Amino acid sequence: MTAAVEETVEQTTVGQSAAQQTTGERTAVGTGVEPSPAGQPADAGQPAEAEPAAPYHVPHHSHRDVSGGWLRPAVFGAMDGLVSNLALMTGVAGGDVSARTVVVTGLAGLAAGAFSMAAGEYTSVASQRELVEAELAVERIELRRHPEDELRELAELYVSRGVEPALAHEVARQLSADPEQALAIHAREELGVDPTDLPSPLLAAVSSFTAFALGALLPVLPYLLGAAALWPSVLLALAGLFGCGAAVARVTARSWWYSGLRQLALGGAAGAMTFVLGSFIGTAVS
At a CB cut-off of 8 Å and minimum separation 6, what does 2 contact? Predict the structure, then answer.
């Protein structure tokens, strides 16, 4: 009887094992996972599923040109051309003159202002560049005559910014190994300029001339197309003022409507005051 009981228990155990294996195979078929060998867990010997990589910051980005090589003269020239020629033409028109006189005045103001702006911008940028080049020449001589003093000066500058003295001296020593690199480092740290990116006087002059001429042309354009009244010129000039302000905001990452309205208000106020002044002078002269 004992043998019969043992045989029954053995058969029951074998049946349970077979049932478990069959259930595992069915589950694997339903889920698309291969069945595991008997007696091993489903994930035994299998590498853990890799977690998705965390998103990372891409360090590649660009900056706007902040050196002022072309943006400042272009913006200044366009605004000056619009405002000054609009004010000039409204002032003359306020004196009750003919449309031909207004056109001649506008074209003369365009030419005179464009050449004046270009000459002034060229002289200004050239003078600034010559000053920087003179200072660079002085620094180059100092680096050649007193290299240890300049190295110590650079190291002290880094120490003042929180770098440990030993590390600051080592950094200064390595940066000073190349004379041209040492000159560039001293120019940036002491003069605040990049000797490899100095503004071009010619580029500034051309930018200023072109921008002023385009800005000053807007108030004259309606007269050249046959208009006999002042108001089309005023409307076009005001639209140009708003457009210039909005365009500048695209470069400076500011609010385009605020920048446009600000320039519109300034230019409109200048034109209105000049018109009133021209009307007063015209009445007094006549």
Answer: none
